[in-house]
Amino acid sequence: MISSVQELLNTYTKEDLEKIYHENISIPKTVIVLDCKEHILSSALTKLNIPIRKGSTSGYVHPKNKHLLKYTKEDLEKLIVEYHSISELSRFLNCSPSTLKGIFEKQNIKLDYKTRPKGLPAWSKGLTKETDSRLIELGKNVSKVMIQRYSKGKIVNPFKGKHHTDESKELIKDRIDQAYSNGFINPLKGKTYEELLGKKKADLVKLQMSQTRITKIASGEIDTMPALEKAQKALRLLQKDTRPEKLFENILIERGLKEGIDFEAQKCIGRFIVDFVLLKSKIAIFIDGCYWHACPQCNKKSGSTYNIERDSRRQSAIESKNYKFLRIWEHELKDPNFASTLNFI
Fold it and tell me: What ranges in 255-342 are assigned the alpha helix state H?
């Protein structure tokens, strides 16, 4: 590769450089032939007083776009009529719009930038990601650009924070009813979350739905006791008791307490799920792990302060409902004499 202006001048005469430059039309195409960099060629041409044409890159075709050269002027004129715009035709030909525009200028093909004629189908009509790989790449590129624009604040969703009016809700409902009356069949009908998402993700979705429903019931959005009981039952089935909770439950049973009469496990108070509630004395008991809840005696701290802040909010919310708040640490349950120290049962 030629690495300097002097080396280029020593290798080629003025006549040779001028001939090669005019044959290859542009500087980018000429440097490929001469095996040098663009600034070296530009300096050499200036030193030899060879005029550099403005817009000399027009018509240059990169080696990866050599497949475009097989199209004649007549072929390109037919294609531009069919696709009507440079952007759509460039997607079809798998090249950039600027490259295609340069080829059109070289072939003296006039472009019409008027509005798209009515009834002219899009280039991608009838194509799917399974039948045309260009749609997959196009989707990836569009997604990347949109994400960047949203993150930089260049695009603001005009519908953010807005809700359907009662009229639009009724209109949507009527259209859905009309679709079903015309024979529409929901493709998800009869399928379970496990079939659609898999067992692990389905359990997570169900858990989130149960917690959301309980929160809405507690806030008064849903005011039906059967719905509350149903949501709590679903939550208990999904939330498996930890080992400390099972140990404490065994202590309650050994003391002669009956679940549902004397105590209740996983009871919803406000928007929090309490591990155990003594119904007669209205004591809310939480069994907390020493690590995740930063036990002061064990000097264990989790990586985040979220649990500590949440525990403080949880205690305030429980006490505001006229319940006594009691926390039992995991290390306390490991003590064999712990059960004998419980004087509130």
Answer: 306-320, 330-333
